[in-house]
Amino acid sequence: MSKSEGGGAIGGLNTENIPWADDDAQAAGGSSATAMGSSADTVSSEESHRRRTLMGRRSHANHLYIKIPQDEQGAAKSSDKSGNVTSDDDENPGPLKEMESGEKRGLRRNSISLPTLNAADLEALVAVHDAAQEVREKQSRKAGDDGESMVCSIEPDTEQSSEDEEKKPSKKYIFRTKRRSSIAPLPALRLNDKEMIANEFDSQSVTTQNSITSASSLASLLKEKIQMFPSMLRKKKKSKDFKIKAFVACLFLIIVFLIGYAYIMYNQQILARSYFDRVKFNKGQRVIGIYNDKGTLMVTGRLGTTIHADKAYHCLTNNTLDDGSVCLEWDGKARMYLNFRELSPTVPCYTIRWQSLSPDVLPTDCYESFMGQGHWYGGGLTRGGNWPLETESFSFAPFITGDANRQQWGNALKRYFISSRGVAIQVDEKTPLYVSMNDNKSGEMCFRAKHDHFAFVNRLTALPELSYRICTSDNMRQLHQQMTQQSLWDGLKEHDINVVHSMLEEPVWQIPSSGGKSLTADGIHNYTERVIALGFLRLGHVLVNEFWQKHIGDFTLETERFPNLEETVTILHRRGFRIAFSVQPFISTDSANFAQSVAKKLLIYERQSERSIPALTRYKSVASAGVLDITNNASIPWLIEKLEKIQKDYKIDGFYLDFGTSQNMPHYYQCNKTLYNPDQYKTIFTTALEGVISLIGVSSAVTVPRPPAFVSLPPVNSSWDGLKTVVTSALTYGIIGYPFIMPGPIGGDYLLPPSATNETVSFYSMNEPPLPDQELYLRWMQLATFLPVIRFTHLPSEYKSDLVMEVVKELTLIRQKAVIPLLKKYLSDAMNEGLPLIRPLWMLDAQDTACLYVNDEFSIGENLIVAPILEKGQVQREVYLPQGVWKDGIDGSLRKGSRWIHNYRVPEDKVAYFMKMPDNTRF
Question: What pLDDT, on the 0 to 100 scale, is given for residue 408?
């Protein structure tokens, strides 16, 4: 087509009145001018440029649309069929008008359909996104400096691009002043099988594009859009950068923590070698862990805490044992033996034995004792009287009997400790044992072997040795039964069994006496007369203290105060009483027997001196006394001869052995035979007299005396604090294996002056207490009613109160109907297995955690629970009942177990107790 033919109209469009855009500004696609026409006619360069400006190739569509141009004032221009341009008042662009097929060629379309991209196209186009990004950043900075809207366009990357930009005049916008923000929507764009709507894709553009006014190729437009796409993805990723970084940082910290924890566990556990399948021991840190058959850790301990050496070696052949023990040695410090033995198929035991190889090393092992590791019981009554044992806190103290007011331990001990987690520790009696609990808030119970100058002055080995065994079981009660099981029937006579029954059924009447002069035959007669006058209390044993002698150790009756004792005893026997005298191994220096015993070398002598020099001590009212050496083969026959003569002459029914505690031994004692410790003295003494003379009780013990001898609870102050210690003492003594216990008299053994404290005054120097407060007496009587033995000094008639008499009568009836039958029922368990008559609640249900720390309740066997009042003025308390159905002893109602009874009311004349109902009882 020639210019003359097309000069007036192009495709029916009148071009004469149209202000054309600058040619140079729109010549970007000049190289494809020939492709824009529909014929092969030659056209001029001016005409060719105009065609490129106004027309576009139709691709994928049968219709082309033309955008109506605008003038500079924004008025709409339209043309009719004749080609004339008319104005429109609407400032928006005119509507798209469909043209005839003949007029479609050469027209620019304003909407372009994009083909779906495949993976190869995308890879080719993404390769240039870095360069495009740099161009956009430059344009953005430029636009920011000019304060104008930015127009983004991608120019061909040629060497002449910079020169062409200098030659190009400023752009003029004919159809519109700048690119409209809304254009015809693009078709869907597919990327990685994910379809994106064209409008959404275009909205991510950071530029305001011009209208397409040139005949650029399809690839040019696609290039611009694809270059925007990575930027869009980056913007979405930037919003998640902070979360990703935070996640990575947390993950890094977790990994560091796990690595550190794994390293610690590696040193604590992996390096711990397994012994006997269930024991893991780390030789470097000397940490031991004992497991059950299910792999559960039962107890953790630190062994050899005083050894300052890490390297352990296997013992030399000449130091190993043939019993299968594992032997480890820390060169020049200590040697340890570890062995295994089954107490029963369900109770494995492990023996640990330490030998010190240096005077600087005191074998010390510590086991966890804080609350999280279970509760510990046993050992004996401590100074604080706490229950459970881990609630105490004290440093290392020798494990020997003493006065709990002044020393750490009470009058009856056993080297046996048991944990609620099913772990029991039993220390060998030859070990010079020191024990600490929570020393410096360590949360550990520690055992140490240590020689000293009194308790363990006799060195059985050159250097101290620590030996003990640890036994475990899943059932705490069964474990305790296995550890304390012993038969007490051996050597018993029918008379002994009758004495046991009489002690359970009848009271013990302790004749009050403030000194030797106040105890007379008439006094004993008058006291028993008042007992008979009560009318409702059964008759029992009359206990006469040591003042039946003129001097302690005479072992003969003082005839001045007891001119007719034989007649008095005959009268008492006729009325139904039994008579028992207290005897001691102490011989006063004022006694005629002192000189005789010194001459025969029957007394304990001073250490490192001739045997003719006796070791002296003080006991109770005796200021100076020697101690009978029961390890001398001649001393026991001498004593038995004198006691049998008294028994025969005065028809005495039995004796009560009052040999004090280890603290009453001479400080520099030395016996004919070497003792392990001072407590072994009382064991030898009791064993020597058993079966020869009748014993109803002992004042102190470290081994279970053969029945009918009952172990006395420690003497207590006549106060509310003293009343509390009766419960904890009874529970503790039952746990350590003393089933037959005898509490002190109702109302207390002595009374401390108001200015005195338990730590400074010993009860041995105190006289018997005056009549206690009435409320204290009643609450004490209520507690004693349920103990194995009830013991009186002050009679209830001394109060001259109807209330006291009525309460005592009611309690006597309860004891006869409910308590005594139960005591006899569980007597066989005590004789056959050593199980206590008075038991803690956890022996009823060891799995109930609430039972583990209740220290103001107890049970008789498994059938009766007692919750006494132990506070002054208290008329209500908290009561816990284990599983089962229980009958209230006050009102007869039924109560469900495994729960607390809050604010349970207990009037002054009542005591809270509950009887176990059969398992099939309907509640």
Answer: 92
* Other beta carbons less than 10 A from residue 684's beta carbon: 16
| 792 DSSP 8-state letter | E
Q: Are 728 and 385 in contact (CB under 8 A)?
A: yes
Q: What is the pLDDT of residue 441?
A: 85
CA 369 → CA 93, 436, 522, distances in Å? 91, 11, 55
Name residues whose C-beta falls within 8 Å of residue 261's C-beta, 6 or more positions apart in sequence: none
- Spatial contact of 413 and 419, defined as CB atoms under 8 Å apart: no
The two three-digit tokens of residue 660, written as one number:
């004090």
CA atoms of 362 and 446, how far apart (whole Å): 12
Using CA atoms, how far residue 683 sits from 7, 416, 552, 632, 700, in Å, is 140, 17, 21, 14, 9
Q: Measured in whole angstroms, how far is the alpha carbon of residue 355 from the centre of its chain?
A: 33
Q: Which residues contact 724 (CB under 8 A, 6 or more apart)?
A: 385, 856, 870
pLDDT score of 102 = 42
669 contacts 678 by C-beta, under 8 angstroms: yes
| CA distances for 232 relative to 237, 242, 786, angstroms | 9, 18, 88
Which regions in the chain score pLDDT beneath 70? 1-240, 263-272, 371-373, 514-516, 754-766, 923
How many other CB atoms sit within 10 Å of the CB of residue 755? 7
Beta strands 465-472 and 444-449, pairing class? unpaired
Q: Please return the burial class of 103, using the count of CB atoms within 10 Å of its CB with bins 0-12, 13-18 and 19+.
A: middle
Tell which residue, 449, 695, 659, has the closest CA to residue 546: 659
Closest CA to 629 of 659, 664, 604, 612: 604
Where are the alpha helices (H) located in 396-459, listed in sequence order?
none
Kindly give, in sequence order, each residue whose CB lies less than 8 Å from that of residue 619, ignoring residues fewer than 6 positions away.
Answer: 552, 584, 586, 625, 660, 664, 764
CA 747 to CA 508: how far, in whole Å? Answer: 14
CA distances in angstroms from 677 to 18, 431, 450, 642, listed in the order given:
129, 9, 12, 28
Largest CA distance in the chain: 172
C-alpha 758/C-alpha 772 separation (Å) is: 19
3-class DSSP string for 828-850: HHHHHHCCCCEECHHHCCCCCHH
Torsion of Cα atoms, 795 then 801 then 802 then 805, to 10°: -10
- Report the distance separating Cα 680 and Cα 690, nearest Å: 16
Q: How far apart are CA 791 and CA 812, in angstroms?
A: 13
**Paired sense of beta strands 616-619 and 444-449, if any:** unpaired
**What integer pLDDT is reported at residue 919 of this predicted model?**
84
Residue 755 has what pLDDT? 66
Q: Give the per-residue pLDDT at 51.
A: 53
Separation of alpha carbons 453 and 398, rounded Å: 11
474: left (phi over 0), alpha (psi -120 to 50) or beta: alpha
- Is 413 within 8 Å of 400 (Cβ atoms)? yes
Q: Cα dist. 382→379, 392, 738, 852 in Å?
A: 9, 8, 16, 18
* pLDDT, tens only, 164-223: 444 444 444 444 444 444 444 444 444 444 444 444 444 444 444 444 444 456 666 666
How far is the C-alpha of 375 from the C-alpha of 389, rounded, in Å? 7
Q: In 584-679, which residue ranges form alpha helices assigned H by DSSP?
A: 592-599, 635-650
- Cβ burial of 630 (10 Å; 0-12, 13-18, 19+) is buried
Query: Which residues does 451 contact at the CB level (< 8 Å), separation at least 6?
Result: 432, 457, 459, 464
Helix (H) / strand (E) element for 914: namely strand 912-916
With beta carbons less than 8 A apart as the criterion, state whether 778 and 870 touch. no
424 by DSSP, 3-state: which?
strand
Could you give the count of Cα atoms lying within 13 Å of 416 in the half-sphere of its Cβ?
Answer: 21
Q: Which helix (H) or strand (E) holds 921?
A: none
